[in-house]
């Protein structure tokens, strides 16, 4: 993901969607290349980020430097007449200074986001969602376990399971997520498969 560049996002048949050209990935060390689908919602989010960050080329996802400045109260200085003749005094400390409000400055870098930054970003997003009440079904203990186990790979596993739950077949899932072998997607879906087997719904009805 951090290797994505603006030039890799190409037109799709759907004018609101895009395709992502992937030259190389973890599962494609030979560099055969692949293409991924970007939904209209994803395209809108990327476009908003590129516009806000002023990015027109090169890496899409970059480090954002955040600088926080504390508020400073107004300073009432001494009159200039009272320090005449005292050339050793620092006038900057004796003249009046207006109050300065707290502020936050953001600076988008030129280089790509470091891979090690992705997981902390996901954890921060989940924590903010929990604090905002968007994850009401999670307890604090559940949240702690979730944050401890989250990684950049979790999104691929989650989508893999969502596709399985929605009824997609294994071939479609492998094609969408570029699995080269059925072993891993089947392993991630093993528990879901057990719950959705013929016995699962029947036992649920029996109670």
> Would you tell me the overall average pLDDT?
82
> Radius of gyration, Cα only, in angstroms?
27 Å
Order of helices and strands: EEEHEEHHHHHHH
Number of helices: 8
For the largest beta-sheet, the strand count, sense and barrel status come to: 3 strands, antiparallel
Note down, in words, how this protein is organized.
The model has no long low-confidence stretch (mean pLDDT 82). The two termini are 44 Å apart. Among the domains are: 1-60, no CATH class; 63-113, no CATH class. By secondary structure, it is an alpha+beta fold. Strand 1 and strand 2 (18-22) form a beta hairpin. It contains eight helices and five strands, in the order βββαββααααααα. The chain is 38% helix and 15% strand. The strands form two sheets. The chain has a three-stranded antiparallel β-sheet with strand order 1-2-3. Strands 4-5 form a two-stranded antiparallel sheet. It has helices spanning 40-53, 118-131, 140-149, 154-165, 170-177, 183-188, 190-196, 199-206; strands spanning 9-11, 18-22, 34-38, 62-69, 103-112.
Concise synopsis of the structure shown:
This protein is 38% helix and 15% strand. It has eight helices and five strands.
Sequence-ordered SSE layout with sheet pairings:
Elements: E1 9-11, E2 18-22, E3 34-38, H1 40-53, E4 62-69, E5 103-112, H2 118-131, H3 140-149, H4 154-165, H5 170-177, H6 183-188, H7 190-196, H8 199-206
Antiparallel strand pairs: 1-2, 2-3, 4-5
Structural descriptors:
single chain, 207 residues, alpha+beta, 8 helices
